[in-house]
Predict the 3D structure of the following.
Amino acid sequence: MQALTAHPAEAISGSARAPGDKSVSHRALMLGGLALGESEIEGLLEGEDVLRSAAAMRALGAQVERQADGTWRVCGRGLGGLVEPDAVLDLGNSGTGARLLLGLIAGHPMTATLAGDASLSARPMARVTEPLIQIGARFAGRSGLRLPLTVIGAAEPLPIRYRLPVASAQVKSAILLAGLMAPGETTVIEPVPTRNHSEVMLRHFGATLRIAPDQDAEADGASGTSGQAITLVGQPELTGKRLSVPSDPSSAAFAAVAALLLPGSELRLTGVGTSPARSGLYTTLREMGADLQFADPREENGEPVADLVLRAGPLQGVAVPAERAPAMIDEYPILAVAAAAAQGTTVMQGLGELRVKESDRLAAMARGLMACGVTVEEGADSLTVRGAGGRPRGGNAQPIATSLDHRIAMSFLVLGTVAERPVTIDDGMPIETSFPDFAGFMNRLGARIAPAAEAAA
Ligand code: S3P
């Protein structure tokens, strides 16, 4: 445990690049390991979650190594060439790593056991095991099919057509990864579009996918649906590729919100991924009145990228529609911090999934904000925050419980940065999963984050 304190700062200014996208990094290692030949990955996130996926791919027979210049080289075995691992695959804190690997292994005739930390071992896995059983895999685990979990992959995986009961890119991706090994076409229907990094990267590596509006929803007469059917043609030839990983919009969000809230701040965050399926926070911040631009838009291996340019100014509370949740699912904690400093009330709805993330993020944010003097109401799947119209109080009496959740830890450090009084969290270690050197990154831009003991001295 490493308690950290964020002291109130004056401004967050300068130019910086937040680390590589976590979602894209996991997928690059996995698809690189499945493809035939060599892939070279630039800008890979070297956070603990992604390093666990790298270790897992090595255990499955791929060569994965960091080169002296910081790029990563993956030598894949070709589709179907992965080997059974000798030991338990430990995915640490990573839900994405665990769920995507379950899919990948489910399509191979092998047995593997996946384990993780206390947070990951509490997270639901039935959402992936259910469709993977239809593909032909079997699972053995404790009640509720949580980790540790053994997957017995299908000797002859079947192509399936599956409608996602929850909006989840992890479940979609697990099915597509298993579907790679099946003959014929695997279709995933998502009622609301979720992040499409798997689809973009599968195409980049040579797979064929068709994406069409969801016919069934139209036939049902469902109104306002933007559902889609994603069809993967099985058993493609995937070949090694070069790719560069955009900076993670979910990680950039922390400095971005701090800069918007601290008067006088001017910040440029370079090379940020701007996929519409990930940009919900930025849409919401604009609706709140933020001066925020995507400058110099470009594309890198199929992913849209831009520099995020921000200037501080007052924010207004807003109502965030439930349909936006998939496009900003990881950003509600930091949006709640922005809402705490905005003028007026912000209402966020459709947040049920936040309860099954690295922690129960709805409860964690409500509890922590209250401890920092913010008025909040926690609903079953909603959060209402009354803004201070300036610096929130901060000054929590007890350290904020981060519960092995990196985004809770970083959000409260941003709260301390923009508050009247310091905010202390009980443990900064979980931040290593997605944003190594977060404190250094923020401090170089003007924040004052330090070990809590030092702060007390
Ligand atoms: C992710 C999908 C999201 C997100 C997670 C990363 C991914 O989870 O919260 O941090 O890389 O596919 P769900 O698919 O469970 O919503």
The radius of gyration is 21 Å. The pocket of shikimate-3-phosphate is lined by residues 23, 96, 168-170, 173, 195, 329-330, 353 (CB under 6 Å). The mean pLDDT is 96.
